[in-house]
TrEMBL record:
It comes from Kitasatospora phosalacinea. This is Erythromycin esterase. GO terms for biological process: response to antibiotic. It comes from the Bacteria. SUPFAM superfamilies: EreA/ChaN-like. Pfam families: Erythro_esteras.
Length: 438
């Protein structure tokens, strides 16, 4: 008997969704098909609460600035401060304005009240410090890394802080919005930037090579072998701001090392003028996301799995493809990188929708058009049964988006998905992502 669509479908619940997650999953990736739709944030929040209370998850990572997210993590951990400030300063891409993100942060802070330190929920950003008009300057992260090392290693092993300051220059020279479209406005391939990449690599090498020393010191008194004064002491104070333990300072140093090198690569790609420039920028970004998520897993390994939430295009197992004018962007997604690194430890749940107010409706021969015939506002689907119900490849088409903020779920890629959630109706997005990008 040919499986029916109803055989593949169950009314949405967090438990129905986790029933599809393979045993041994360390990183559960929940994708959204577009940004700014509160329906997917609500779904994510329901799932995360269930994962925390029933499956031992203690961390979540969003598609947001990895450095800025430290402010949100401190807030959910009980630090003094205002919720509005934590959301405004701790979430990039305008995500702090969404009600679902406010609800998530409030719930995490409430959950953490009174729990033991080892059980508290942690909030992470998986994205680099990147916005749609460009990337942050690498200097702040690089100088914090230098300060961490200068406090623990002999001075002769390190480049002079003065040289780093000179090469970095003012942040504004790195963050010119015009560089996003005009590579000649980018400083990413100047002689100073090239020298800075070399020094960043050397600092990262020192951090990695001396990690056993740092880990032992941070577990104990945290005493270092180097000494610093004046500006270096001020930088060290900034480096551990918002961190509660010496081990947090090591985590922050490794985060700064990844971020500084990632930003320097990204700025170099921004300065490129070849036909692969945009693909290179997408590669750099998803590599940063993958590296951050893998580092989060290492940190959280003893506490439980992690939920990641980002656009489907970042978390999917296949290569990312986005049509842009007459070009087709093509790059290996963060999900494909993590799937290769984690083997069976990576699981991906995709989401999609039917109707978007006021006049965006899927064609009947698309996957979303077929799913729109199901009863109920939200449906969980087993992708293997769904593929069988759809029949031969090509019978159901991929949805062509009404605008560039949405990318339909590819029916040919259902074998690369562990679960699907279909939301019948969403309201038109508010704010930036009424017309943004993934």
């Amino acid at each position: 008997m040919t499986p029916s669509l109803q055989d593949a479908a169950r009314p949405f619940s967090a438990a129905a969704l986790t029933d599809l997650v393979p045993t041994g999953t360390r990183l559960l990736a929940l994708g959204e098909p577009t940004h700014g739709a509160e329906e997917f944030l609500d779904l994510r929040n329901e799932l995360f609460r269930h994962l925390v209370t029933d499956h031992g998850y203690r961390s979540i990572a969003l598609e947001s600035d990895c450095l800025a997210a430290l402010a949100v993590d401190a807030y959910v951990g009980g630090a003094e401060g205002e919720l509005d400030a934590a959301l405004r300063e701790g979430l990039s891409h305008g995500f702090g304005a969404y009600a679902g993100n406010r609800e998530l942060v409030c719930w995490m802070r409430e959950f953490n009240t009174g729990v033991e330190e080892g059980e508290r929920l942690r909030f992470y950003g998986a994205d680099g410090p990147l916005e749609y008009t460009g990337a942050a300057a690498p200097g702040p992260a690089l100088l914090r890394l230098h300060a961490f090392l200068a406090d623990r290693l002999p001075a002769e092993l390190l480049p002079e802080r003065a040289e780093l300051l000179h090469l970095c220059g003012p942040d504004e020279r790195w963050t010119d919005p015009a560089a996003a479209l005009d590579p000649t406005r980018s400083v990413g391939r100047t002689a100073e930037a090239t020298r800075l990449r070399l020094l960043a690599d050397e600092l990262g090498l020192l951090l990695a090579a001396h990690r056993p020393q740092f880990a032992a010191a941070e577990a104990g008194a945290g005493a270092g072998t180097g000494a610093g004064t004046g500006a270096e002491s001020d930088a060290r104070a900034e480096a551990v701001a918002g961190t509660g333990t010496a081990a947090d300072a090591l985590w922050r140093a490794e985060l700064d090392a990844r971020t500084a090198t990632g930003l320097l690569r990204y700025h170099a790609a921004t300065a490129g003028d070849g036909p692969d420039r945009l693909n290179s920028l997408m590669r750099q970004r998803d590599l940063m996301i993958a590296d951050n998520l893998e580092a989060i897993l290492r940190r959280e390994a003893r506490r439980g799995p992690t939920l990641a939430f980002a656009h489907n295009r970042h978390l999917q197992r296949e290569a990312g493809r986005i049509p842009l004018g007459g070009h087709q962007l093509l790059w290996w997604s963060a999900g494909s990188l993590l799937d290769a690194r984690l083997d069976d430890g990576y699981a991906f749940l995709a989401t999609t929708f039917g109707n978007r107010a006021p006049d965006d409706h899927p064609a009947p021969d698309t996957l979303e058009g077929v799913l729109a015939t199901l009863p109920g506002p939200r449906t969980v689907l087993d992708p293997a049964r769904l593929a069988a119900a759809l029949g031969a490849p090509g019978r159901v088409q991929a949805r062509i988006p009404a605008d560039h903020t949405y990318f339909g779920l590819d029916p040919a890629a259902l074998d690369r998905v562990d679960g699907v959630v279909f939301v019948r109706d969403i309201a038109r997005q508010q704010g930036l992502f009424g017309g943004g990008q993934a």
